[in-house]
Amino acid sequence: MNASFTVIIVILIAAAAILLLTFLGRSRAGKSPKQKKQKDRAVIIREANRRLAQNPRDPEGLTVMGNIYFQDQNWEKAYTAYEILFCLASSTPKIDPFENALRYGIAAIKLNKIPEATKAFVEARKLRRDSFEANYNLGYICYIQKEYEKAITFLKQALVIDPESIPAQKYMGFSMHKAHHFREALKYLKRALEAEPEDREILFAMAECLYETGAQEQALKIFSALSSHPTLGPHAALYSGIIYTQNGQFEKAITEFETGLKHDNLPKELSNDINYKLAAVLIKNQDLGRALSVLKEIQKTTPGYKDVPSLIVRYRELNQNKNLKTYLLSVQSEFTELCKKMVTEFFPGARVKITDIEMYADYSDIVAKVDTSKWTDIVLFRFYRGQGSIGEIPLRDFHARIKDIKAGKGICVAAGVFTDEAKRFIDGRPVYIYDKDQLNKLLNKIE
Q: What are the start-end ranges of the E strands in 256-372?
């Protein structure tokens, strides 16, 4: 009995000892690596700081601290350490010149110290031309400095080393876009967008490339979708408006331009550009009142912007003279009807029969048989819609046409002026000219 009891006691003590050892072992095993790591880091930092206290340019101490700061992304302190190491690298064999230059460049670019970053990456690339980081970062720096052709050179080398790099694809596309290599840029931008479908800057650059390569319908879809974007929206709306204007969809163009102008904090240059194009499409849409308001707003904020002062003078007059507005801005059918009314106005009381009408880009010709109480003859009328100057050469052409159709005389009407050479040419010839002032008098007689 006593023996059995003694055995039981021994077994219990042994089990308790085993459990205690196991617990202690697990406790040490669980805490040791972390504690050891913290202890090692603390010891390393303390040793490095001791060395730097004795010599602030100690290579080993700077390398250790630079590595720690770099891993912690403490860019200010990492930059300070690697800047000194960069200067020491050429005279200190213990320093890895390539890694040091690369890290110095990365820390510099994180702090927007572009000249220092450039110097560091150039040095790293000298040491290893096949370094992706050196080539990519030099390409990126050239891009932000608007040296797009140089950026393309570096980024091409980066993509040879790592063809799958999305940042390199992205900035290659951006650089080619800015360098006007629009078709080539598209393939890089598409790859970058596949990886970053929410990146609206890539999408906008793609739309510009599509627009410049003639794919206006695709570009318009993207620009329209981006027109409400807080930063890209004004530019996207500007492009949408331009495309709609080119397609003759003036109402939609006006809507897009107005959407662009609704954005807050528009730069004056961009605001002026959108307003100027808005005024132009309002003029095309024959809404001269609104066009004048927009032009006056531009003139108020930026006096002398482009040809705004002369446009205000021109379209103020047109807005007050319906017939002159029709003469200059209406569709071809309305213009032709107005010209036919003017033909009859030239010879009040006569019988006028229009026998032929020919319309051209700059002018229209009307042939009429005029029968008065004193004479009957064929008269050729030419109506110029432009407000520029008409010189001798157009009148020589007009005179030749008079002879070809065997007309007795020709009457040339313009919304602009005739040069002195033109006036001298008609002397002694059956050609009569009516400039803008005479045109206005004629138009005022017409209902």
A: 351-359, 363-371
Residue corresponding to tokens 């492009």 = 239
Distance CA 3, CA 25 (A): 33
Which pLDDT tens digits describe the chain residue by residue (447 residues)?
A: 455 555 455 555 555 555 555 544 544 444 445 544 555 777 777 777 787 778 778 788 888 888 888 999 999 999 999 999 998 887 788 888 999 999 999 999 999 999 999 999 999 999 999 999 999 999 999 999 999 999 999 999 999 999 999 999 999 999 999 999 999 999 999 999 999 999 999 999 999 999 999 999 999 999 999 999 999 999 999 999 999 999 999 999 999 999 999 999 999 999 999 999 999 999 999 899 999 999 999 999 999 999 999 999 988 888 888 888 888 888 888 899 999 999 988 988 899 999 999 999 889 999 999 999 899 999 999 999 888 899 999 999 999 999 999 999 999 999 989 999 999 999 999 999 999 999 988 888 886
**Parallel, antiparallel or unpaired: strands 376-384 and 417-418:** unpaired
DSSP string, 233-277: HHHHHHHHHHHHHHTT-HHHHHHHHHHHHTSSS--HHHHHHHHHH
Helix (H/G/I), strand (E/B), else coil: 57: coil
Separation of first and last alpha carbons in the chain: 139
DSSP-assigned letters across all residues of 126-171:
HH-TT-HHHHHHHHHHHHHTT-HHHHHHHHHHHHHH-TT-HHHHHH
Domains and CATH numbers, the chain: 215-320 (1.25.40.10), 332-444 (3.40.1350.10)
Cβ atoms of residues 178 and 148 within 8 Å: yes
In three-state secondary structure terms, 409 is strand
Q: What is the pTM of this model?
A: 0.72
Tell how far CA 251 is from the center of its chain. Answer: 23
Q: Which amino acid is at 283?
A: I
